[in-house]
């Protein structure tokens, strides 16, 4: 059994869902300690309270929003400066915990402090997130403007951390890894076990997942669609006409997602991947100024499983057009290809073997009983064949 410290960015649910999915796949054979802040901490801590998985709270980088829900550049910059000012002390604290508690490996989902602490304490670490697609994937198929923006954003990814043993890129699309000397794995979306076990139903209602920046005109367009719309992200609003506002709930959200006819949502990678895994048609609304979401929306359209619209321009005609084409966007048996959880687990286990942590696991499990630890047997096979992923 390896001891793994695992940190996660605090902004947005996608990071936290990814961490939960991998934690569930690893927790029965490894000891996991999660470091999270903000949204991620509020999501993960109740799920693991009282379990063998410990969730520790740390400061996080997050967007700041204006009263109208749009991202505020000045407020975000001020918050970032405060975070950066506290970064040296945070890294020292985390490095001290690493030295004292001796994890075998550190994992990070786009969270810079624990990665830097691992470097200081000389403990190997892996990166598993979506954002590194900007640095590692071949994005030559993007339109020129988006390709230019992606290059600029990719240059900034390196500032978070850059000495990881390997990078695992999780994305619902896989345009290929650019040639480099870096150790990179490409996996599809991390599908949480509660979702992977479900069989999608062809219901009648739409599911809408809103962000703070979603304009009110989106709700007005949905109000005239002629179907019940179950809305998440607006839980302080009373039901009105065909709009049914739901409080954020993992089980309730998954129930409504699995049984929906289609989904209207922001273009975050994790939710789009879950929709495609279920074969659900998607009308994606990339947030204004969010180039990562614009890229996600582009690849959604290329997949043939949905379309995109600018949130501020969405109207009732767009919703009607989407509903008329639901049959065209619905996925078939190929939807199962969007589940990358096992590939991510295999990548982590291969890296444990490459780093020599495998030998410590072997001593705990017992050398000859490969059936008690098939991941260890597979890792030995990979090592023997010279495969690197």
Condensed summary:
This protein has 389 residues and is of the alpha/beta class. It has helices spanning 13-26, 38-48, 73-101, 112-121, 133-136, 144-157, 193-196, 216-223, 250-258, 269-278, 291-303, 316-324, 326-329, 341-354, 357-365, 374-385; strands spanning 3-8, 31-36, 54-57, 105-109, 125-129, 166-170, 184-187, 206-209, 229-232, 243-246, 262-265, 282-284, 306-308.
Task: Please provide a written account of the structure.
This protein is of the alpha/beta class and 389 residues long. Helix content is 45%, strand content 15%. Strand 11 (262-265), helix 10 and strand 12 form a beta-alpha-beta unit. The chain starts with a strand and ends with a helix.
Lay out the secondary structure.
Elements: E1 3-8, H1 13-26, E2 31-36, H2 38-48, E3 54-57, H3 73-101, E4 105-109, H4 112-121, E5 125-129, H5 133-136, H6 144-157, E6 166-170, E7 184-187, H7 193-196, E8 206-209, H8 216-223, E9 229-232, E10 243-246, H9 250-258, E11 262-265, H10 269-278, E12 282-284, H11 291-303, E13 306-308, H12 316-324, H13 326-329, H14 341-354, H15 357-365, H16 374-385
Parallel strand pairs: 1-2, 1-4, 2-3, 4-5, 5-6, 6-7, 8-9, 8-11, 9-10, 11-12, 12-13
The run of helices and strands is EHEHEHEHEHHEEHEHEEHEHEHEHHHHH
Number of helices: 16
User: Which structural class is indicated by helix and strand composition?
Assistant: alpha/beta
Mean pLDDT: 87
* Poorly predicted sequence stretches spanning 5 or more consecutive residues: 363-389
Distance between the termini: 23 Å
Tell me the count of domains: 2
Largest beta sheet: strand ordering: 3-2-1-4-5-6-7
C-alpha Rg, in Å?
21 Å
Shape: globular
* CATH 4th-level superfamily of the largest domain: Glycogen Phosphorylase B
- Under CATH at level 1, the class of the largest domain stands as Alpha Beta
CATH architecture of the largest domain: 3-Layer(aba) Sandwich
Q: Which range does the strand content fall in?
A: 5-15%
- Total DSSP E strands: 13
The CATH topology of the largest domain corresponds to Rossmann fold
Summarize the amount of helix as a percent range: 40-55%
Biggest sheet statistics: 7 strands, parallel
